[in-house]
Amino acid sequence: MSAGRKLTGKVVIATHNSGKLAEMRDLLAPYGIETVSAGELKLPEPDETGKSFAENARIKAAAASQRSGLPAFADDSGLCVEALGGAPGIHSARWAGPGKDFAGAMSEIQRLLFEKKTSDDRAYFVAALCLAWPDGHLEEFEARVDGTLVFPPRGTQGFGYDPIFLPDGHKLTFGEMSAGEKHGLPPRGKGLSHRARAFVKLADACLR
């Protein structure tokens, strides 16, 4: 991958999601990057009007960078269920509603699959990352991890749809994995999650 603009100093993590914030801070920590969250800065959440994960990550990063005057790091990610035509996809958070009821959202996926009378349990997580600078410069990266759905949900680690997602080649769902198992980076971890895989691309371009 060609070198991108190097990220140094302080960066805004453009999320109000505590689970994503924890993962992003874990990923950035080894590089000595100081972080502050959009929530800590009391930045408003922009409307995610994009038609793709990449577009929504760009909207969030650019908004946080312009408002803070600092580089900003944003993620947009979601679960795509093949038998549901890729849903919930970019609407993954909306399926959980304003109360962030992911248990209800997982039940809805199970209900829809039952209605379809399908044996197709294939799914994948996508993560799009965007770094935005106040001058408008962007660096963008995307990755996915494939797997299958399991019901009932298993595990209380992670967040969102993690308890129903079993990544290919593994016996534990994301909900059963520790933070290190899910998104720890080499050499200590395997960089398994969609967010970790996208972050490896970002780190190669902007942090090394």
List keywords for this structure.
6 strands; 6-stranded mixed β-sheet; 208 residues; globular; alpha/beta; 21% strand
Q: In total, how many domains does the architecture comprise?
A: 1
Q: What is the correct CATH architecture?
A: Alpha-Beta Complex
Integer average pLDDT? 92
Unreliable residue runs: none
- Shape call: globular
Question: What percent strand?
Answer: 15-25%
Spell the H/E element sequence. EHEHEHHEEEHH
* Residues in helix, %: 25-40%
Protein architecture, described:
With 208 residues, the chain is an alpha/beta fold. It has one domain (10-206): Alpha-Beta Complex (Maf protein). 31% of the residues lie in helices and 21% in strands. The chain is built from six helices and six strands; from the N terminus they run E-H-E-H-E-H-H-E-E-E-H-H. It has helices at 18-28, 53-68, 92-95, 102-116, 179-183, 194-206, and strands spanning 10-13, 34-37, 72-81, 122-132, 138-149, 165-167. Strands 2-1-3-4-5-6 form a six-stranded mixed beta sheet. A hairpin with a 5-residue loop joins strand 4 and strand 5 (138-149). The chain starts with 9 loop residues before the first strand and ends with a helix. The model has no long low-confidence stretch (mean pLDDT 92).
